[in-house]
Amino acid sequence: MKYFTFPLVFLLCVINLLQAQIDLYHIKKDSSGFELTQKGASLLASLPLKCIVQQYPNKTSHIVQSDSDQLVSSPKQLHPVFYGCFDWHSSVHGHWMLIHLLKTFPQLPEAAKIRAAINTNLTPENIQAEIKYFDSPLSKGWERTYGWAWILKLDEELYTWNDEQAQRWHLTLQPLTQKIIEQWTVFLPKQTYPSRAGVHPNTAFGLVFALDYARTLHNEGFEKLITAAAKHLYSNDKNAPVLWEPDGSDFLSPALEEADLMRKILPAPAFIKWFNHYITLAGLKHLTKLPVVSDRTDLQIVHLDGLCFSRSWCMKSIAAVMASSDQRKKILTQSAMLHLQTALPNIVSGNYGGEHWLASFAVLALLK
Fold this sequence. Notes:
Helix content is 59%, strand content 2%. It is mainly α. Strand 1 (25-27) and strand 2 form a beta hairpin.
C-alpha cells in the first residue's frame, strides 16, 4: 500500500473539504490534525440538541418482567434524563458533546438552548429514576460497559469545567456516577475474559474511559482495579487477528482499542515491547485501509463511519508514544488523518441512523 506524504495528505484534506463546501474545520497550526471552528461546533451541536429531547424512533433494550411492566414503556418514562437520541448511551454522549462544545466555545449561538435543555433533563428526581432502573436484578448488566463509560466521560467533563451551572450538574449526576462505579467495581473481578467485539460491549473501550475518569478525579482505588483488570485480560496477548477486521457493523477496532488501553496502562518502553508482539507491520497496514460504507441509511452499516473516527483517535494516541524513527509512527499518524478527513463530511448525512450519534465520535477524534 502506498502512503501519502504529509503535504499531499493535507492538500487532499483541504480539497475534499472545499469540494464539499464545508468550512467547519481547519488544519491546526502545527499541521498535526483538524480543529473545529465555532461554525462547525454550532452545526454539530444542533444534532444532539434536537435529539436529546426526541423520543422516537427509540431502541430501549428494555427487559419486560411482567404485564404491569408494560404499562411503563415510553422511553421518557423509563429514562427521564437519557431518553432521546434513539438509545440511552447515544443520549448520554450527546449530553457529553453539548457540554464539551459549550465549554470549548462559550459564545456558541446555541449556548442558552444547550443550558436550558440539560437543566431540564439533569434534575435530582430524574437521576433517581435512572438509578432505580439499575436496581432490577435483570438490569444490573444493562449498558455494560459502553453506556457506563459514557456516564463517566460526561461526569469527567463536568468536573473539569469551572462553570457554576456545570458544577451543579456534576453534583446532580453524582448518585448515578457512583452507581456506575459500584456496578463496575463488582463486575471487574468477575470478568474472566474480555469482550473483543467491535461494538458496544468492547471491554477495552470502556476501560479507557473509566481509567481517564479515575485518574482525573483521583479515584486511586478504582484506578488500581482497572489497571489490574487490564493487565490480567490483555498482557499476554500476541498476534491479534487484525485481518478479520472490520466486522460488518464495527464502530470500534478491537485490536486498536486494546492497544490504546495498554498504551495508558504500561510505561512507554513496556508498551512498545508488548505492541511489537501484538500487531505485525502487515497487520498494521491492513488496519489503515478505509472501511467501505455502502449504505448510510442502514443502522448497522453506518457504524463504519464511526469506525473511521475511533480508528483515528486510537492511531494518533498509539503513534504519540513511538519514536520518530519508528516507521509505524508515520503509518499510524498519516492513517489517522486520512480516516478523520474521510469521515468528517459524512456526519450530517440526513439519516437519523448516523446523525443521532456520529457527531460525538467526530468531536472525540478531533480532541486527540
